[in-house]
Amino acid sequence: MKIKYIPVFVKDMENGIRFFNDKLGLKVADQIMLDNQTPYLPIQMNSADLYLGLVVDKDNMGFKTRIILNTTDCLKDYHQLKAAGICFNKQPEYLAIGLSAEFNDDYGNQYILLEERNYNQQ
Fold it and tell me: Which of 10, 43, 67, 71 is the Cys-Cys partner for 16 at CB 3.0 to 4.6 Å?
């Protein structure tokens, strides 16, 4: 087994689409139905078989998602995303696992840019 879809809950589908298209530069695929009542809008990641799935939080349950986005250059991506209108929670910081920067979408879902580094390599 492998993960295929990771749900991202939004209050408004059109705003969610704009966030992923305009600010993150990700492409939206055709809508699918995971059940008879819930439209699910897949957003393809850099892997051909992994998608984020926009789902409207129609019952206003306040569901939130935390997604870690792997990057090879955290500082470059940080500056590009800031220029695209992303407001980061704080400046990029060094952690034991590598360089990281955090931001949220308009619905409170959290995204972490992570440039993994091995600080023990010589």
Answer: 10
